Amino acid sequence: MPKYTQPRKTWQYSNEFKVKAVQLSLIEGIQVQDVANTLDIHPFMLSRWRKEYREGKIVADKRKKLTEATRKQEKEISKVKKLEAENKKLKQELDLPKKVATVSCGGTSARYRFIEKFGPKLGVKRTCEWLGVSRSGYYSWRDREPSERKRSDMELKILIRSISDENEGRYGSPRVWQALLKQGYQVSRKRVARLMQEMGLIARVTQVTYRAPGLRRFLASGENLRSDGAVPDKKNQVWVADVTYLKVKNQWHYLSVIMDLYSRRVVGWSLDSKRTTEVTRRTLTNAIRKRGATKGLMLHTDRGVEYRGSEYQRELRKLGIVHSLSRPGKCTDNAHMESFFHSMKAELIRNTTFDSAEDLKYALARYINNYYNRKRLHSGIGYCSPMEYERIAA
Questions:
Q1: Which residue windows are coiled coil (predicted)?
Q2: Which helix (H) or strand (E) holds 248?
Q3: What is the CA angle 232-234-237, rounded to 5?
Q4: At what angle do helices 148-166 and 189-199 cross, to 10 degrees?
Q5: Closest CA to 330 of 227, 206, 195, 178
Q6: In angstroms, rounded to a whole number, what is the distance separating the alpha carbons of residues 245 and 211?
Q7: With 0-12 CB in 10 A as exposed, 13-18 as middle and 19+ as buried, what is 205?
């Protein structure tokens, strides 16, 4: 026992003294006995202070001292957390029958797949009990070698991923399915859709909004010569055209496009920062240069000023092209162009930032000339690309 140089019957130590003593005893390499001897206190007393320090009864000035009220609050908080955990467990048990109902009539493998998916969250033991299967059977199924069907699915997933990446995520399950058929793989469309869903592959889509021009412009003279909506049986019989808005760094640019309705091939396009007859005339010139003007060719457009302008009308008459106009307020009369713009914005523009108009123009050239016309499968022409469809028809 240590000797006390100034023994006293009672001695009141301050909170700061106790904290300092505990902090000294917590320094690495220093023993409790040495600190007690230095401070002239009993080692047992210092050990009790260390215990009270850990429990929060002795605290430094900067820490909040635990009172009886705070201890009660902590107990209440702990009790609430425990009740919340029990409530979450009960909620999972209530939701479990709804999930189980989706596989209750399925086979054993379907139930095992359900356990594999929801077991980590709901608990394997509880889920097995709900589904009426044994845990040993589930673990045996999980650890066995994959079946021939599963190996086939894994190989298909590699092909599906390759097709999706090659088309930059633009293909949904119908086009991926058609691409697989073209490569010689016999597989059902629903199987492709299921595998794409498992892989989380979704085609790029977007919602296109339209700015409705004034009714007076719609009510201008002009006639819809395609009221029946018939599709031509040869190329260079009916062309459709339209203009859409694209933004680059808070500045609108206008894309003018002409499409051959027979093959859905884009035969001319032009990009400009101004929406005038100049951009549509340039598009028409490009299309004529590529395809050649033919007498009796019909060009169908909407009633925008860029098509109703006198200069543009003179150019059409000079080339012998008949001009057809959509009915006022009926954008569906030019549905093929609207569909093209919708696909282009979903597959190219959405989630893409262009630093300049030149970057946008380069991306459009790559998409329209190299991808859309040459490679992209089109549902309206038997899942062929426009150029392939024209070659087959020839």
A1: 66-100
A2: strand 238-248
A3: 65
A4: 80
A5: 227
A6: 10
A7: middle
Q: Is the pLDDT of residue 103 over 80?
A: no
* Annotated domain spans of the chain: 1-66, 79-143, 148-199, 215-393
- H-helix segments, 26-172: 32-39, 43-55, 68-100, 108-122, 124-131, 135-143, 148-166
pLDDT for 241 beyond 60? yes
**Two tokens, residue 359:** 């970057």
Q: Does domain 215-393 have CATH number 3.40.50.300?
A: no
The residue behind tokens 């260390």 is 50
Structure-derived torsion over alpha carbons of residues 46, 49, 53, 57, reported in degrees to the nearest 10: -170
- Say whether pLDDT at 257 is over 90: yes
**Residue 386, Cβ neighbours under 10 Å: how many?**
23
- Per the CB < 8 A criterion, the answer to whether 322 and 297 are in contact is yes
Per-residue pLDDT, 254: 92
- The CATH number for 1-66, chosen from 1.10.10, 3.40.50, 3.90.350, 2.10.260, is 1.10.10
> Which among 221, 273, 218, 263 is positioned nearest to 243, based on CA atoms?
273
Instruction: Tell me the C-alpha distance between 186 and 179, whole Å.
Output: 11
CA 326, CA 311: separation in Å to the nearest integer?
20
Using DSSP's 3-state secondary structure scheme, residue 246 falls into: strand
